[in-house]
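Attaching the record inline, Q. Sequence:
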Amino acid sequence: MKRILVANRGEIACRILRTCRRLGLETVAVHSEADAASLHVSLADRALPIGGPAPAQSYLLGDKIIEAACAARVDAVHPGYGFLSENEDFARAVQAAGLAWIGPDPKTIEDMGDKERARLLAKSAGVPVLPGSARFAPGDSAGLDAAANEVGFPLLVKASAGGGGIGMRRVGRPEDLAAAVEATQSMAARAFGDGTVYLERFIAEARHVEIQVFGFGDGEAVHLHERDCSIQRRFQKIVEESPAPGLPAGIREAMCEAAVALCRQERYRGAGTVEFVLDAQSDRFYFLEMNTRIQVEHPVTEMVCGLDLVELQIRLARGERRPVASQAQVRSGGHAIECRLYAERPAKGFLPAPGVLARFEVPAAGPEVRIDTGVRSGDRITHFYDPMIAKVIVHGPDRGAAIERMLAALAGIRIEGVDTNLAFLQRVIAHPAFRAGEVRTNFVERHKAGLLS
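Structure, as predicted:
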């Protein structure tokens, strides 16, 4: 394996390209019309255009990407996250073209991408699963009310093909159920090409804890410890950390064992994440989903484990059977926190705020401070893509030190030209409840008066 095409854009493309360069691999980028002068294009050895600015005209066109890969004579394709990273048909097409797919087996992607099937597979592996329903297709409401009563209110209506917090609606009353199901089905059909939804128990006092796993494709796997991703807005993560604060050792061990058990059953190959919801009142945890790709928040795991997950993915894809020799080799040291910096307006429902990034300056990177970004001063944050500007990741000997380091890093950022959530992030990290480790998925809603002022 000498040449890799990165089938993505933005900060994750830049992050993959830098590891490839460190490993001495040649790189090929693809880009839309809107990204012709972007940072990820400048970092690659070669860049090829694949279409118009909208994702449906470019980054979601698997045939165009494979055409570019063949034209550039690459050996492998790395999908990053989002776009086609969890599209089993694209993965199969990459392999059919004679290229290595830097990701799990397409059948695994298919199984875990179907949320109802994933729940059944998790249950068969002995992983606790939240009460939920069968799927409901658009126009099919037979048995909906009975299923909702069995699941119990409040509940979530979730897109079967959803992920990343997209395609979810909370329903607190029976009279609101039909409208929520119809709206979620419509959104899911547009976003994922699959309008089916299912119902799942909603836990009010919840934490979102996930386990980073790495499987070898032969029934063996290791975990790289946990991340807490409870600080969210609109069901999407904005602050992540590792280790999860205040998590009882027994719960941590049980979660890790459950995640590895699922990987072993499915003969999982490569990097993945098993996500759990933890009932903060009972300390019981339940399977949410498995993401068959690298996660946005993977840097916090890298910080505490001292490993490069993209490097491990590449080493496995090029034939190394055990890029991590054993579980005993996976260390965990100190504490890491990541904040997602967005061009958005927190006080207006976190609406995206596209525009020209007239000024963008960040603190100097080092062993304890990392800035992952795909933009520079003068670049445009467009409405075509996710408005993330950067991920700010810090590491400290303990959580208190990591918090202070994060506050210092955020204070050192200078942005002009677009509205951002920078001040909001500073308030979150400095908040007494966050400092005390009182992290819940309703944190922003609970403390919004002080966070959005």
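The mean pLDDT is 96. The radius of gyration is 21 Å.

More tomorrow.
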